[in-house]
Write a structure and sequence with these properties.
The complex is a heterodimer of chains A (about 350) and B (about 625). Chain A is built from twelve helices and twelve strands. With about 350 residues, chain A is α+β, with helices and mostly antiparallel strands. The relative contact order of chain A is 0.15. The N and C termini of chain B lie far apart (about 60 Å). With about 625 residues, chain B is of the alpha/beta class. In chain B, helix 3 (about 75-90) crosses helix 21 and helix 17 (about 365-370) packs parallel to helix 19. Chain B has 27 helices and 27 strands. The chains are: A alpha+beta (about 350), B alpha/beta (about 625).
């Protein structure tokens, strides 16, 4: 659809949020414990944050929960009955950052590939993403290197930009349209100067990035052609503590394992987040493990993330530049650190 | 989706996390980005913290033994039954006891201690983990006068020098290992000490190799090097330390090696340095001396009594420190005061309205082998104690065994009464990390079935023994702990609201340090023999929070499936030297017995040493005897 560009006065934002809250489930950045910011259901419209550091835990769990019930298995006499479990609740993810909106686009494309994943897609199709463009880049973000921020040109249902007095409201989909039409008296069409201001803010934001950069292109050449030495992987692997945080906080990671949970005399088959960095991720029933050493698992992870082979399929690297792995990594093997080492052929030297 | 801020239940780092819950129950974990300890970094265990509560074999109904089988009972009947059976044993003059646990909260442990001391009138109260914790804390106390750690995990990250006596930090305390890695990346000197070249040793500036159990010898060499190089500040030592002459006598004849000289220089010249002490391999008396020698090393090099520097004992499990603090430790009353201390006795007598029993009581291992009645709180002695299956045999002989736990364990399966309590994700309370930080745990889900918070069950039991225990909340219990353990009263305002831990006040001003050497170490120095050592790294695979978690249990389960009879580990160079191919069955023979089991590769293991993982200690019980390290003859079977 042709984007519709509107304007919302800041003082009306609460009223809009109240309307959205009254209509269904809203997830937004709110205050957590201490100084934390987390994605959660706000108690009221005023609890939604507008100026905040992007939460460390991404909102991907609202389309792909860490524990995801897929199928109910029940006893029926001597037979078992299998029933899919779908979560069809409509949700609005409000004030998500550009990188996270892009992460959901990445995940949805993956789950749409045949055979399509109905459980994921029902959640994703029922999720409306209202993103808040980053007029100030976050200190450890590098989304300019992955084309996933600070502003989006697609991948949102609604994109908001803080213009000072007003928010510019870019409506990018029918789902987005529904979120503004429920309170249409609050919006007016944006003026040309407001549209120009948004463009200017985007350019300014792109010039204000911090020190984190990620030169994917040169790393991709080396990874895709096997020009990263085994010794380098081995050296780097000593700086990984196998926590799996890089996978869990990554907006684009979706590896899982499946386990049945006994409930009420039957079972619920659950998909659970798993980490390709865990020893047992590829452990076979025989006891054989094709990737028994951490260096092999790291190599595999970065091949999936930055190789040309996957880039051709996904049309983007497996990274949205959010910088979360820099903060969450127990070791020192975040995306920028490893990509930098691959590019230079050196680690901590 | 509900996000409940709480404290990680695994190791003693005490990371902050959110439990995520849906109407159906727990659904996941999120890190707390600004938490004082973890700052958003969780290890694999932390990320899987919700799983055991969801997947575990949970105890859901009170069970009592009727006519030889366990049958469900009402809470009233079950509590009355436990009280009656224990009372009968006490009236018959038979010994009874209680085991607390670092898997339980401070409130639960405190009430377990109160039940033992004031209710059952016994000092037989201990925890199976104290074997590992007590020597570290006692060694610290020998030098500093109290056992409070002087360094914090975030001090590690800012240190210029880190000395690490190695268990295997990357596996035992990943969050502390994280700080070590970040410090080393920033240019800090890491010195590791041990018989294994672990992941930490591979990134270290210097690895000081030692035979297992001989760590004290290397620590003394470091002390000798510090004194030899005059790295100590004589004025500060004169003012703040006792025992310098004795220390000089003890270590002056020890030759200083190049490694010791380098390590001493890095420690002595660093503005900020942290010494991380892993649980000991040596026998408890030597382990205490080793810990004291490490504290002496910190004192001599000017790193005690200085913020940002000092010692941190690496306690094995989440609430190991809290359990000790609130009185679940043999020979000590709440507040870590000796059981014989009259003023402490008086304080508790006033608080509890009961006369306390005399004596020190028994430690966990002796206790379960000698009492007739035992109440076990959230623990499974056979999977924790070094005696393994012999603990199981001892438990089976106990006349009356009651278990309070959230999970089914080998102990709960043979109990005469089972009282189901809420697990960490379903209860309110506090736990104390290895830094001494008292942190809150909060309920993110309801306990299953009729399970109920442990503090409530223990309060009911106390009441049945005539001990006042009327609390409306876990917070009420914590308030009482604040009277019994003054350090727990000094909590920062607002802690209850924010869910953040309050730190214990630490005042180093005017403290005197008693300098001590480790002294003659283990005598197993015959170079011709092979040493078999029991890996003291805690076997998480046998802990319910791991064994019941589908994600976290995979490694240990597959290892147990592949090696049902266990294995011993060897370094490749030593296997080559002996000419025994890795994978073959070997026969180990010691003075006490023999065992046959397969040989497996352990990268980085020192020559002359074999390691048996803690999980497989039963398989070599005959060879090890009562020791943790023993000389063996090794031959292909």
């Amino acid at each position: 659809m042709q984007p519709i560009i509107l304007t919302l006065q800041k003082r009306d934002a609460t009223q809009w949020l109240e309307k959205l809250l009254s209509l269904g489930e809203v997830i937004a950045p709110v205050r957590g414990s201490g100084e934390d910011v987390i994605f959660s259901t706000p108690a009221c419209a005023d609890a939604v944050l507008w100026e905040f550091a992007n939460p460390l835990h991404p909102p991907k769990r609202f389309v792909l929960p860490q524990t995801d019930p897929l199928v109910q298995i029940k006893h029926n006499g001597h037979r078992h009955e299998v029933e899919p479990i779908y979560d069809d609740s409509p949700r609005i993810l409000f004030n998500a950052r550009s990188c996270d909106a892009k992460g959901i686009v990445f995940l949805t494309r993956m789950h749409e590939m045949e055979p399509a994943d109905a459980s994921y897609l029902r959640r994703a199709h029922n999720l409306t993403v209202v993103s808040l463009a980053c007029t100030t880049p976050c200190p450890s973000g590098f989304c300019v290197c992955t084309n996933s921020g600070p502003f989006l040109s697609d991948g949102y249902d609604v994109q908001l930009t803080d213009l000072g007095e007003n928010y510019l409201v870019e409506v990018g989909s029918a789902k987005g349209h529904a979120t503004v039409s429920c309170a249409q008296n609050l919006f007016r069409l944006a003026t040309e100067s407001e549209k120009v201001q948004r463009k200017r803010l985007e350019v300014e934001a792109k010039n204000r990035f911090g020190e984190e950069t990620c030169h994917f292109a040169s790393a991709m050449r080396r990874v895709s052609t096997g020009r990263v030495s085994d010794a380098l992987w081995e050296r780097m692997s000593d700086w990984c503590l196998e926590c799996g945080a890089c996978n869990f906080v990554c907006p684009t990671c979706y590896c899982f394992s499946v386990k049945d949970l006994g409930r009420n005399g039957g079972w619920v088959r659950c998909r659970m987040w798993d980490s390709c960095q865990y020893n047992a991720f590829t452990l076979e029933a025989s006891g054989h493990n094709p990737r028994p050493e951490r260096k092999e698992r790291m190599k595999r992870r970065f091949f999936h993330k930055v190789s040309a082979q996957y880039y051709q399929r996904d049309a983007m690297v497996g990274c949205v530049g959010c910088g979360r792995c820099i903060k969450a990594c127990l070791g020192t093997t975040s995306m920028p650190a490893v990509v930098g080492a691959i590019r230079k052929g050196k680690w901590h030297e | 989706m509900l996000s409940v801020s709480t404290t990680c239940p695994f190791c003693a780092c005490g990371c902050g996390l959110y439990l995520l819950a849906q109407p159906g129950g727990l659904a996941g974990v999120a890190p707390s980005e600004t938490h004082a300890v973890s700052s958003g970094r969780l290890c694999a265990r932390g990320w899987g913290a919700h799983e055991a509560a969801l997947w575990g074999n949970r105890l859901k109904k009170p069970l009592v033994n009727k006519h030889g089988t366990l049958e469900t009972a009402s809470w009233e009947d079950a509590l009355d039954y436990v009280a009656r059976r224990m009372t009968d044993l006490i009236k018959a003059g038979k010994p009874v006891g209680v085991l607390g646990s670092p898997r339980a909260t401070n409130e639960e442990n405190y009430l377990a201690g109160k039940l033992a001391r004031a209710g059952l009138r016994t000092n037989n109260i201990d925890s199976c983990f104290n074997r590992l914790c007590a020597p570290l804390l006692a060694g610290l106390e020998d030098v500093c006068g109290e056992n409070v750690p002087s360094a914090h995990i975030d001090d590690v990250e800012r240190s210029q020098t880190i000395l690490l006596t190695e268990g295997d930090l990357a596996r035992t305390h990943p969050r502390a290992a994280s700080s070590v890695l970040k410090a080393v990346e920033g240019g800090a000197h890491l010195i590791t000490l041990g018989h294994l070249r672990t992941q930490m040793a591979r990134v270290a500036s210097l690895h000081l190799e030692t035979a297992p159990g001989n760590e004290g010898e290397v620590i003394d060499r470091l002390l000798a090097a510090v004194l030899n190089l005059r790295l100590e500040d004589p004025n500060w030592v004169a003012q703040h330390c006792n025992g310098l002459d004795g220390l000089l006598r003890a270590v002056s004849s020890i030759p200083v090696t190049e490694g010791a000289r380098q390590a001493a220089e890095w420690l002595g010249r660093a503005e900020r340095a942290v010494i991380l002490m892993a649980p000991p391999i040596a026998q408890p008396h030597q382990a205490r001396r080793d810990a004291a020698a490490l504290a002496t090393l910190a004192a001599l090099t000017g790193h005690l009594g200085k913020p940002g520097s000092g010692l941190l004992p690496l306690l094995p499990r989440s609430n190991a420190r809290g359990a000790c603090d609130v009185g679940v430790t043999q020979g000590y009353l709440p507040g870590h005061e000796p059981a014989s201390d009259r003023s402490a006795q008086q304080r508790l007598r006033d608080l509890w309205g009961q006369q306390l029993a005399p004596g020190d009581g028994l430690d966990a291992e002796s206790l379960l082998q000698s009492v007739s009645g035992l109440i076990v709180l959230a623990d499974d002695p056979p999977s924790v104690l070094p005696i393994g299956q012999r603990a199981m045999a001892a438990l089976a002989k106990i006349e009356f065994l009651a278990v309070l736990d959230a999970f089914e364990t080998s102990t709960s399966r043979i109990a005469h009464a089972v009282l189901p309590i809420a697990c960490f994700a379903e209860t309110e309370g506090t736990i104390t990390n290895m830094e001494g930080r008292i942190q809150e745990v909060h309920a993110a889900a309801d306990p299953p079935g009729e399970a109920t918070p442990g503090w409530l069950v223990l309060a009911e039991l106390c009441a049945r023994f005539g001990v006042g225990a009327s609390y409306d909340s876990a917070g009420d219990v914590l308030n009482e702990i604040g009277v019994a353990v003054p350090q727990y009263a000094r909590r920062e305002p607002g802690m209850a609201d924010s869910g953040r831990g309050a730190q214990r006040a630490e005042d180093f001003n005017g403290r005197k340090y008693s300098l001590r050497a480790a002294g003659a170490a283990n005598l197993l120095t015959d170079e011709r023999s092979t040493l078999l050592v029991r890996d003291e790294v805690f076997d998480w695979g046998s802990d319910p929070l791991v064994s019941y978690s589908p994600t976290l249990s995979r490694d240990s389960q597959s290892q147990r499936k592949l090696f049902p009879k266990g294995f011993v580990e060897i370094g490749q160079p030593y296997a080559d030297e002996l000419g025994i191919p890795v994978g073959r069955q070997v026969r180990l023979t010691s003075a006490t017995g023999q065992a046959v089991l397969p040989l497996r590769l352990r990268p980085g293991l020192k020559s002359g040493v074999l390691v048996v993982p803690y999980a497989f200690r039963d398989q070599v019980a005959a060879v090890l005897g009562a020791e943790g390290v023993t000389a063996v003859r090794l031959e292909q079977a």
